[in-house]
Amino acid sequence: MVISSTGLAAADRAECAVAYDSRLIDRDSVIELQRGFFSDQPSLPSKYFYDQSGSELFDEICELDEYYPTRTEASIMRECVDDMVDAIGSAGRLIEYGSGSSLKTRLLLEHMHPDVTYVPVDISGDYLEQVADNLRRDFPQRRIAPIAADFTRPFRLPSSEAAKSRDVVYFPGSTVGNFRPAFAATLLSQMRNQVGTGGGLLIGFDLQKDPAVLEAAYDDRRGVTALFNLNLLRHLNRVAGGNFNLNAYRHVALYNDRDHRIEMHLESCRDQQVTLAGRSRTLAKSQRILTELSHKYTVDGFTQMAAASGWKREQIWMDSNEYFAVGMFRS
Ligand code: AVJ
């Protein structure tokens, strides 16, 4: 099989001879969609949660009683920021993968040594520049050096005045849990190669706990997460020629105890024919479309996974309920 530069099989690229609006979605994304949705176990990429409506729904999720991760991580950061800032040190760069609004990072920017450069990395170039301008206004003493890149693929870091070994990757929000362990390990190895020997990794990860607490966090009583999940279909109808009838699906969130992860699905409520990205398939009643995985770790389990990618645990900070962890690792 010929694998092209974008890591996609030539056969897959040939399949993509479908009409799509390149202003709304790029060719690789169409191939990724087709590969996931037209398989025996249909799936759709979680990145389509986050259009404007989805981002607003996620902000609402973060305020829900049941959804503890965001507020718990924020409380750990507030309580332990001085230790974290000491661990980050006084030189080099803080490189944030998937920085988004950088709102969660402002606490670190307020407390970090002034010589540490902040490098927000995000796939959306325009939004990233707007965020970087706001940060330069609010932190005029701090060097801000944004990089527009998809962090799930290797990207080049410009050389830094400080020794590479003083760089720290920052990866909050338990986003590492959204990747299958094999790819999470690949990502951790990529981060390690970027900072070199002696570099750091400051990372948030959600901890294993009572499955009832976990399932409630992803299937709240008010149904906000259900709307968040369904909105993915509305987004794909808009950008990828989908004809999903949102009334014909129901939100499902289950804890998979064997793989230690929440799995979110959209379950078909009836036998139906669906079109997406120029192709059609049937979905049987009760057939499920996987839309998100959210892996939950133990501190030791995450430490072992990080060690296999060349990271040594330096410090772990947890909340009093041991619901969530932020760790500092060294390469
Ligand atoms: C923002 C990806 C970390 O996986 O917990 C929230 C997204 N999904 N509710 C998570 C999410 C359902 C969240 N991440």
Short recap of the structure:
Keywords: Methyltransferase, Transferase. This protein is α/β, with parallel strands linked by helices and 331 residues long. The chain has helices at 10-15, 27-37, 52-61, 69-88, 106-111, 125-138, 181-195, 211-217, 224-239, 299-308, and strands at residues 93-97, 117-122, 147-148, 168-171, 200-206, 249-256, 261-268, 272-276, 279-283, 288-295, 312-318, 324-330.
Average pLDDT figure: 92
Output the CATH topology of one domain.
Rossmann fold
Cα(first) to Cα(last) distance is 35 Å
The counted number of beta strands is: 12
Report the β-strand fraction as a percent range: 15-25%
Secondary-structure content class: alpha/beta
CATH top-level class of one domain: Alpha Beta
What does the largest sheet look like?
Answer: 7 strands, mixed
Order of helices and strands: HHHHEHEHEEHEHHEEEEEHEE
Measured as a percent range, the helix fraction is: 25-40%
Write out the strand line-up for the largest beta sheet, numbering strands in chain order: 3-2-1-4-5-12-11
What low-confidence regions span 5 or more consecutive residues with pLDDT below 50?
1-8
Oligomer class: single chain
The Cα radius of gyration reads 20 Å
CATH architecture of one domain: 3-Layer(aba) Sandwich
Number of helices: 10
Bound molecules: N,N,N-trimethyl-histidine
